[in-house]
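Final report, Chapter 2: Outcomes

The project's central promise was a pipeline that accepts a single protein chain and returns its three-dimensional structure in a standardized token representation, suitable for archiving and comparison. That pipeline is now operational. To close this chapter, we reproduce one record exactly as it appears in the project archive, with the input sequence first and the structure output second.
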Amino acid sequence: MASSKQAYRVPEVGEKAPDFTLPDTELKMRSLAEFRGKKVVLAFFPAALSPVCTREMCTFRDHFDELNKAGAEVIGISIDGPFANKQFKEVHNLNFPLLSDYSREVISRYGIVMEDLLHIKGYRAAKRSVFVLDRDGIVRYRWVSDNPLVEPDYEEVKSVIKSIP
């Protein structure tokens, strides 16, 4: 683990995505490294079961087959605990892993910490962010929003996935 005093920044296109290991909804530890050899859509979202996050994750669910046929895996990541993520996944029939960054270490390493989510002092959550990684874990697309109510451009994400060999 890195020191909390270390400054992190959002990975640039062309850089290797920082690796991580986080629990999924079944409490199985999942690492980014296990997805090497596949294209990956890392979708960081602020809060499970919230309206915009629900719409975003359900949109990825609805496009999952198309992304999967293009050789991509979707991974959703929030600061919610594995149990909240499990309920979120079950309620909305999400067909991809949801990982829990309950310690906020990964969102810190990716430089996407939203301080004071919705003006709640001290509630640090993930900025809504999407990173598309190639088969070697190199960032080929990044989108980070300072506004938790804004969704990514799903067509742009699909286009990038399809452009990666």
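Archive annotation: Residues 63 and 158 are 9 Å apart (CA to CA).
This record, like all others produced under the grant, will remain available to the consortium after the project formally closes.
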